[in-house]
Amino acid sequence: MSIAKKVRDYKVANPNAKIEEVAKACGTSTGYVYQVMYKMKHKKVKAAKKAKPVATQPTEGQKVVRSEITRLHKDIDDWRSLYLSSFDEIEQLKQDVIGYRAVISYLQGQLDGLAV
Fold it and tell me: For the packed helices 30-50 and 3-13, what is the interaxial angle rounded to 10 degrees?
């Protein structure tokens, strides 16, 4: 068994052990224990980075939720276009009201000026 294997096994068995304790138990220097621990840490990180998630098939429930989300997006787009078209109609109606008020004001002035 190599010293590096001893260090790894000892550290796995005693995760709270200090570097000096591991070095003494394995018969090596603290510097070597640091090297082994560094490599252990970085191999775990590399392995985690390399692991790619496995593509899974969506469940029936997920398909239903996705179709509902799509339907809601379409409804929102429809409501938005309806709102914008209503907004244009409302603006036109506001302009019409202003015009009608001007006509009413003119006619009221004409009536006020006439003596009956």
Answer: 70
Answer yes or no: are the C-beta atoms of 28 and 7 closer than 8 Å.
Answer: yes
Query: 16-65 pLDDT, tens per residue?
Result: 989 999 899 999 999 999 998 888 888 765 665 666 667 788 888 888 88
Q: Return d(Cα 79, Cα 99) in angstroms, integer.
A: 30
- Domain span including residue 39: 3-50
One-letter identity of residue 63: K
Q: How many domains does the chain have?
A: 2
Q: How far is CA 17 from the centre of its chain?
A: 40
What 3-state DSSP class applies to 27?
A: coil
Structure tokens at 9: 């096994």
